[in-house]
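For consistency, the fold was encoded as tokens, as this record shows:
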Amino acid sequence: MLKRIAGLLMAGMLVVSNLTGCGAGATEPDDYVTNEGYELSSDNTDQAETETSKSISKEEIKVGVLYISDPSEGSGYSYTHDLGILGMQSNLALSDDQIERKIVDDADAEATKKAIEECISDGCNIIFTTSWGYMETTAEMAEQYPDVYFSHGTGYLSNDTNFNNYFGRIYQPRYLSGIVAGMNTKSNKIGYVAAMDTSSSEVTGGIDAFAIGVASVNPDARIYVVVTNSWYDPEKEEAAARKLLDMGCDVMAQHCDTPYPMTLAQEYGVYGIGYNSDMSKEVPQTCLCSVIWNWSAYYTAAVNSIIEGTWNSENYYGGMSEGLVEITDLASFCAKGTQEKVSEASEAILDGSNNVFDGELKTNTGEVIGSAGATLDDATITGGIDWYYENVVLVE
């Protein structure tokens, strides 16, 4: 059963100093969001109100986090997760020494295991592993250490005691950002740097949602995709972005860790749509908007559930209505009518009349996915999108 966060009240931004490192005591950046009224709830209210775990006092909580890159080095994936950790720390009034950060390659199982063991040795009683490649090792360690809570981001494995996974409906704001791209391209060539190929439903689903959004306002536009086959590879991400820009793409989007597609778009004098965090701080002159995560919504609720003794191992999958994902305010230089289209589509997503993957969806190979009057289910969206929408062009 999918968990949702109920009653999120988004507080104002806190203006503080820039993130300086990944060790304990990293200072807070100026764009993290705190969440009050946090609570993990299930579709079954009675079950959600039942105590399902032994509580750990706030003073005894220690949180371990594994990142694939140094959050201080950019505005991408790890940076955004750390914003969430910092938001959680602020919400729950935890001290710096109650947070332990590790930077480790998610493709290195032995290094991952060692990092987790170090966290446990240092007293961590909940460990968040934030990248796909950590999943198998996290599952293994959860079995080995049943008294420690494990929560893995972007995967699908879990158990019925101390291990769950968490992700969100990022395809919702992806769709909205596609509307922005479609309204603002002049060449009808939109570039997209993707971390993985169609074997990753997470990446491909995001591309397709974006492409559906583009098509809803601009059926003549095409989305050109270059795949890096790495969750984090600055050199490949830069090369992919340059390739698309040299092709004449005049709006750039991305599902990759570094901001290279955005910074290079500004260098080329074209627009960009950021991902993970608000990238307008890097490229204020060209960033149309960003698709962002508010991970503090989940991290706060998860740690608080351990403090209150209400943790259970159900998987979490939140969206715009829970405050986990959103699109930033649009730049003032967006084309006329863009805001109206985005507002209309956003309202439709929130009231359930637009689920993005609705009806018959044509692929770029001529197949038809889905059926009239229906929408793709969560299992398909999270694990079964291995096709590109009809206006997507894969660039080899």
